[in-house]
Design brief:
180 residues; Rossmann fold; 2 domains; four-stranded antiparallel beta sheet; two-stranded parallel ribbon; 21% strand
Length: 180
């Protein structure tokens, strides 16, 4: 088996005296799909946020290909995230003043790798090929979810974290080919 892409060892997160999750050990290997399941409030989103370096933890380690996220400052984590993580947020987090294509292109822009053809292909792959010039407020919840998915995939990240990525999608979405 290949070396893990990401490792969690003894990961613990508390809010005050309440333990959100404790002593989590997990290896994520390249190409592997892992589902974290549980009822609302058990810490699934918090765990994903820790794995992405968006949140801090109280004990344990998160490493990506040997790099310790806990040893990085906020700026270093942001730079790491930019290159290595695609994140589909439960609440979309699209920027309202940017059109759909600009929202999808954002990771590429941050990497200084503008690729309009890649953005168009991603929009096409999620069924939004004709909506690139629309603003987020002109879209439905399911369409916004697809914008968030396209944005998370556009820069071909080695690690994709998705927090309830299909919660707002139609039961029968349009057929699409995914470009990853």
């Amino acid at each position: 088996m290949t070396a893990p892409l990401m490792q969690l060892r003894g990961l613990t997160k508390r809010y005050g005296e309440s333990v959100v999750f404790g002593d989590v050990d997990m290896d994520v290997h390249p190409g592997e799909f892992i589902a974290v399941v549980g009822e609302s409030g058990v810490g699934k989103s918090t765990l994903l946020n820790c794995m992405a370096g968006l949140d801090t933890w109280d004990a344990g380690t998160v490493t990506h290909r040997g790099a310790d996220l806990g040893a990085m400052d906020d700026k270093a984590r942001a730079i790491w995230r930019r290159s290595h993580v695609g994140f589909v947020f439960q609440a979309f987090h699209v920027l309202p003043h940017l059109d759909v294509a600009q929202n999808v292109a954002l990771p590429l822009m941050l990497l200084e790798h503008n690729d309009a053809a890649r953005v168009r292909a991603m929009l096409q792959s999620v069924g939004l090929g004709e909506m690139g010039a629309r603003l987020p407020q002109e879209l439905s919840g399911g369409q916004l979810q697809r914008v968030a998915i396209a944005r998370a995939l556009v820069h071909k990240p080695p690690l994709l974290l998705a927090d309830e990525p299909t919660g707002n999608l139609d039961p029968r979405p349009p057929r699409a080919s995914w470009i990853c």
